[in-house]
Design goal:
By secondary structure, this protein is mainly alpha-helical. It is about 75% helix and about 0% strand. The protein contains 21 helices and no strands. Helix 9 packs antiparallel against helix 17. It is globular, with a radius of gyration of 23 Å. Bound molecules: phenylalanine (PHE).
């Protein structure tokens, strides 16, 4: 008798709480604590924040639900997921692939060689691989993003050491800038901290889903909130803090530009870890009895809360100390240490702040590594241990190139020239290139494809079928009954209602989200300029 090959049972989260904390850990990261405050500062404060909240609710939650449902349904990593669900032929995929090939040819005519060839190859791949390309792009994006994310995570660890040993003692932002440039320019040290960051990621992923990721996040996410609350209390009790609070929460719509709206939407995507299958992978470990709607709302809510709290932690201090809110990317590494140093017990606040940043980055970093690891475990049948170590080393090596390129790109003239020849912009470092490629291209394209695929190919009917498991009567209850608290009343619970959570979600996934993402995408790559 032939023996049946037995696939080992897939690991699972211990329950909904474990999943929500792990996924919130993935979402809450440098995006919320480092990037959000400075783009809010640059885009005028309160009104921008309001638009960002709207984007999270209108695009973030629907796409998050798509990804979790895809993952739980297929029980696979992103590549396995799309391999399983892609139909033998899809007209829509051929149409999209063909469109990209034509765009590539147009770019070549304008002498944009690097991007032209990229569009040609990518369009060809879409044509050939159909929707499977979404999964492939997700795993590749996870690999690429972690390579430079880990470098910044390493900076945060480096700054913890600096703050704790009282080396962040400067009075002005100019001094802080010198220290910052000195630090990121000392390649040996940066690579050392990048190594430490990757080592921590590998150690957690090595231990598995429940013992590694879940245990780590159950510790790190609450820690994040505690540190944040302490720092907010400190910031809010400074004399003059009120100006910072009103900067965050008084919407002045005259300061809001069309550009700002798009920045808000693009950021919502990155900060919620959407578009590359992190939530597909985490969703694949979710039990059938858990509520996907509620989880999606919780994860988005927690991440958004942290983004808003970050502003509440940083701007009161910035204003109280008389610094500028629109300082740009250096806000966290330059202004924040300068602000905290001036306070009584300065090193303590600085250390706490950078621990917060490092922990947040770590909880996101592990989700990126898990996407790549899960691919090798599911599809190549590697053991988790082997997959975590091998992919960790590969990512560390690629990240080394980013680390060198930030300040010492000139020392690798051959690579620099090759990159510049292909993609133009002689000054763009490898770090910028990978950041641009992933955040401005791969994530929005991935998100767009995930919506189109769920809405039109896999179909909202199948997706809702998956979501109904564990959502009790959530999906089918009339929206107004739900809001009125009548969800458990049988007369309000029927799949014949036209206005249910399920139907609303379907409309968003099929129409509203793809259009919104497409507009953002075209804007970010510069083909649609909405600057007033
Ligand atoms: N959401 C993370 C952050 O805000 C970044 C991230 C993007 C993590 C994509 C995983 C996947 O920093």
């Amino acid at each position: 008798m032939k023996e049946k090959s037995v696939t080992p049972e897939r690991e699972k989260w211990s329950g909904q709480l474990g999943f929500i904390l792990a996924a919130a850990g993935s979402a809450i990261g440098l995006g919320s604590i480092w990037r959000f405050p400075y783009i809010t500062g640059e885009n005028g404060g309160g009104a921008f924040m309001l638009v960002y909240l709207l984007c999270c609710a209108a695009v973030g939650i629907p796409v998050m639900i798509c990804e979790i449902a895809l993952g739980r349904h297929t029980q696979r990593n992103p590549i396995g997921c799309f391999n399983q669900l892609t139909p033998p032929a899809s007209l829509l995929a051929h149409f999209l692939g063909g469109g990209m090939v034509l765009t590539g040819i147009a770019l070549l005519c304008f002498h944009a060689i690097g991007w032209g060839v990229t569009a040609l190859i990518f369009g060809g791949l879409v044509f050939w691989k159909s929707w499977r390309i979404v999964g492939i792009m997700g795993v590749v994006a996870g690999f690429l993003i972690l390579s430079y994310y880990s470098v910044i995570g390493g900076w945060a660890i480096g700054y913890v050491v600096k703050a704790a040993s009282n080396q962040l003692t400067f009075e002005t932002v100019a001094q802080a800038k010198t220290t910052y440039l000195d630090f990121i320019g000392s390649t040996g040290r940066v690579i050392g901290f990048h190594f430490v960051f990757m080592l921590l990621c590998v150690a957690i992923i090595y231990k598995g889903v429940q013992k590694g990721i879940e245990t780590a996040c159950k510790f790190m996410v609450p820690l994040l909130f505690i540190i944040m609350l302490v720092l907010i209390l400190r910031a809010l009790t400074l004399p003059g803090a009120a100006a910072g609070v009103s900067f965050c929460f008084t919407p002045d719509f005259s300061k809001l530009t069309a550009q700002g709206v798009l920045v808000a939407l693009g950021h919502a995507f990155f900060t919620l870890s959407l578009g590359m299958g992190a939530m597909i992978t985490y969703g694949s470990y979710l039990g059938k009895n858990e509520n996907i709607f509620a989880s999606g709302v919780w994860i988005t809510g927690l991440d958004t809360l942290v983004s808003v709290l970050s502003c509440l932690m940083i701007f009161p201090a910035v204003f109280a100390m008389g610094f500028e809110p629109g300082e740009g990317p250096g806000l966290v590494f330059q202004v924040v240490p300068a602000v905290f140093h001036r306070l009584p017990a300065g090193p303590l606040w600085g250390t706490l702040f950078f621990i917060l940043l490092a922990v947040a980055a770590l909880a996101s970093g592990i989700s990126l590594l898990e996407v790549v690891t899960a691919y090798f475990v599911d599809e190549k049948k590697w053991t988790r241990h082997r997959a975590a170590i091998v992919t960790g080393i590969a990512i560390f090596l690629l990240g080394g190139l980013s680390a060198v390129s930030i300040e010492n790109w000139d020392k690798l003239p051959a690579i620099q020239k090759a990159v510049a020849a292909c993609f133009g912009g002689a000054r763009a470092s490898f770090f910028d290139l990978v950041d641009n490629l992933t955040c401005n291209w791969m994530l929005p394209l991935g998100g767009l494809f995930i919506c189109l695929f769920t809405g039109w190919i896999w179909g909202t009917r199948n997706a809702i079928g998956e979501i109904r498991h564990g959502s009790k009567n959530f999906a089918d209850v009339h929206l107004l009954s739900l809001m009125a608290g009548l969800k458990d009343d049988p007369s309000h619970n029927s799949s014949t209602h036209p206005l249910t959570l399920a139907s609303m979600w379907g409309i968003f996934v099929r129409f509203i989200c793809p259009v919104a993402i497409l507009i953002t995408f075209l804007h970010t790559i510069g083909w649609l300029n909405l600057k007033p």
